[in-house]
Write a sequence for this structure.
């Protein structure tokens, strides 16, 4: 028989999350529970055994269906007890005296939360958990008292799996949001780059603009400048000078390169060459 006899419990036991699993056919059931603070905690390996309904159901007096009356054996044995009439500690002690390895106490009222059962740890060496009324009635209906049909196990593995799934889903969502943001940002920058890219003139259009051969004698005219505003070099005799519609003059090679590569406006006054305004 599965026992934890001889274990001297500390003054207070920290409860750990656990699950009650009934291997019922055709549908198994799993219920959340609240382990008692004064009973032996459920370890990571858990415990499985046969489940029996307490007689009397409230287990406030010695049980009629004790371990020895059921044929003995080495398999663990659980007892299902209803809340009410006496304290949790009394019920667990009665279950222990009846030879059971774990007491599963279910609520006698429909409530949204589970109690964390408290009591004196001294002399308690079995497991004890508290479940909802719905879970208790389900266990009571489908239990058959068969070996290994009911298990009380730690929920750490299940919780860990849930956390991993949630973390993975969250990571996927975050990556998707970042990817969507970067994609939208790149598209916006690309559109902005296309729209902001300087326009240019075709060389044929530039070549029809008037030009003349520079001579030093022209400097006496109000129309001529002495230096090209693009390359900042003084004009030399014999160089070709291009005149824009705004009447600003430049080396032909300088302004032609500007208009065909960088923009359609005068480098000095910014007037559009195409419009002629």
């Amino acid at each position: 028989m599965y026992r934890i006899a001889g274990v001297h419990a500390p003054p207070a036991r920290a409860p750990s999350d656990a699950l009650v699993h009934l291997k019922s056919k055709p549908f198994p059931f799993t219920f959340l529970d609240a382990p008692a603070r004064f009973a032996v905690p459920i370890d990571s390996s858990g415990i499985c055994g046969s489940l029996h309904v307490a007689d009397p159901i409230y287990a406030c007096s010695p049980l009629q269906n004790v371990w020895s009356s059921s044929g003995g054996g080495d398999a663990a044995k659980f007892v299902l007890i209803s809340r009410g009439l006496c304290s949790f500690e009394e019920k667990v002690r009665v279950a222990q005296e009846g030879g059971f390895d774990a007491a599963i106490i279910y609520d006698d009222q429909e409530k949204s939360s589970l109690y964390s059962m408290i009591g004196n740890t001294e002399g308690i060496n079995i497991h004890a958990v508290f479940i909802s009324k719905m879970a208790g009635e389900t266990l009571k209906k489908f239990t058959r008292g068969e070996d290994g049909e009911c298990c009380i196990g730690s929920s750490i593995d299940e919780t860990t799996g849930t956390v991993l799934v949630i973390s993975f889903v969250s990571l996927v969502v975050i990556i998707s949001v970042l990817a969507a943001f970067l994609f939208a940002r790149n598209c916006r920058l690309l559109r902005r780059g296309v729209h902001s890219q300087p326009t240019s003139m075709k060389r044929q259009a530039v070549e029809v603009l008037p030009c003349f051969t520079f001579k030093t004698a022209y400097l006496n005219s109000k129309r001529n400048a002495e230096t090209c505003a693009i390359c900042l070099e003084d004009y030399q005799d014999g160089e070709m000078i291009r005149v824009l519609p705004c009447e600003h003059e430049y080396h032909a090679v300088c302004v032609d390169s500007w208009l065909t590569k960088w923009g359609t406006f005068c480098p000095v006054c910014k007037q559009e060459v195409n419009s002629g305004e």
Notes: The first helix runs from residue 88 to 97. The chain has five helices and ten strands.
